[in-house]
Write a structure and sequence with these properties.
With 93 residues, the chain is an alpha+beta fold. The chain is 20% helix and 17% strand. The longest helix is centred in the last third of the chain and has 13 residues. Bound molecules: zinc ion (ZN). The site of zinc ion has 8 residues, from loops.
Length: 93
Amino acid sequence: MQKELAVSISDLRYVCIECPSCRTKVVLDMREKSGFAKKHTIFTPKRCLGCETPYDTAIQPNIDGFQRAYQALPIADRISFRGEPVAIVPLDS
Ligand SMILES: [Zn+2]
């Protein structure tokens, strides 16, 4: 028996970033802007809040972009991620 994992973007409320140096985990709420996001006008911190080590430079712009997609309702509830391909309408037909 196969289990299919299907997750809608609108179900993914929290993003977690783990620091590779000190393992501090930062959890960001994509639905409610944090005090940090309101103050700095960026959603994702650029460095670890525990040890100040800068994150990989790809993290901040990409997670910010994902958060914008999340906020762009009503599309977020129509897009889902799946663990297996679902052939409903082949893209290349
Ligand atoms: Zn750290």
